[in-house]
Write a structure and sequence with these properties.
alpha+beta
Length: 54
């Protein structure tokens, strides 16, 4: 069980098969394994641009 600070009243949450917790609250964010650390943001647009270049 971990806890992380989020500023959203009702964020959408999903858990990947590998156990990674993803939250949509002010963008797509990954919940870190360490408790009480800020979520890691994921820049989806940049990832899509990188994929197109390959």
């Amino acid at each position: 069980m971990t806890s992380t600070p989020l500023f959203a009243t009702n964020p959408a949450v999903t858990i990947a098969p590998a156990g990674t917790v993803w939250v949509i609250a002010d963008g797509l964010q990954r919940i870190p394994e360490e408790s009480m650390h800020w979520p890691t943001s994921l820049d989806v647009a940049t990832l899509l641009d990188e994929t197109r270049r390959q």
